[in-house]
Amino acid sequence: MNKTLLFCTSFAATNEQWEYRYKKWLDFYSKISLEKSQLLMIDDGSPMLPDWPNLKIYNEPIIPTEGNEKCVLFHFNNRLGREGVLNYPGWYRSFTFAATWTKALNFNKIIHIESDTFVLSEALMSYINNLSNGWTSLYCQSQNFPETCIQIICEDQIKKFLKFSRHDYEINFRNKPIELLIPFTNVERKFIGDRYGEMQNLNALPKGIDYAANIPSHWIEI
Questions:
Q1: Domain harbouring 97, CATH code
Q2: Domain range for residue 148?
Q3: Residue 102, CB half-sphere, CA atoms under 13 Å: how many?
Q4: Helix/strand/coil for 192
């Protein structure tokens, strides 16, 4: 049986941002049939943290010894931020910290879904639930590259993820597109979805899609 970690990266400057974006992510993924043992937000030094009764918060450097909590936030003490599309030290640190968390708490499957990304179809949920090997992403048609907003890292790839997490950001990733540098074993193209929030003159999601990425949270109703 899989012990599956479902995580996103986070940063919020206000309580409103926590509620508007990250609470919706937690509520959405708590309710749908995507399998998960724990929901984790990895936070890039936000100046304030949410006070939600069902959320357990750990501040750097504390990592728990058991992964029993359903909803967790890990908070880095300082912010690295994101300087631009190709400069993302905060995201890289948060994303790769999931490898450390996974090793410490003995998860054997990792699902990464960003906080502005939603899995919408039962077909895609079933596909993700049934994956048992490989490091898989979906495909971003508008950008013609792997969709890093949704990734599934199975047990056979966790050591590779740990190795990837030890790379020096400045040497290996600064000013480079991360979508082309992650060592995916599979880029799955059969599901319909895109970064709809980046598309001009679009203010709602198309019908019949499997996922939506980079979208405003008010487009999604729970």
A1: 3.90.550
A2: 4-219
A3: 29
A4: coil
Contact assessment for residue 93 and residue 164, using Cβ atoms and an 8 Å cutoff = no
Number of domains in the chain: 1
Which token pair is 220?
Answer: 């999604």
Question: Residue 74: CA atoms inside 13 Å, Cβ hemisphere, count?
Answer: 23
What is the end-to-end Cα distance of the chain in Å, rounded? 28
From residue 98, give the alpha-carbon distance in Å to each of 70, 147, 174: 16, 18, 20
Q: Which two tokens stand for residue 177?
A: 């597109």
Burial class (CB in 10 A: 0-12, 13-18, 19+), 212: buried
Nearest to 114 by CA among 149, 162, 78, 166: 149
Residues 14-56 have pLDDT tens digits of 999 999 999 999 999 999 999 999 999 999 999 999 999 999 9
Measured CA to CA, the distance from residue 91 to residue 99 in angstroms comes to 14
Among residues 140, 178, 137, 127, the alpha carbon closest in space to that of 157 is found at 137
Per-residue model confidence as pLDDT tens digits over 53-109? 999 999 999 999 888 899 999 999 999 999 888 999 999 999 999 999 999 999 999
Give the distance, in angstroms, between the CA of residue 195 and the centroid of all CA atoms in the same chain: 15
State pTM to two decimals.
Answer: 0.95
Q: What is the pLDDT of residue 222?
A: 61
Question: d(Cα 68, Cα 148) in Å, to the nearest integer?
Answer: 27
Run of H or E residues at 146: strand 145-153
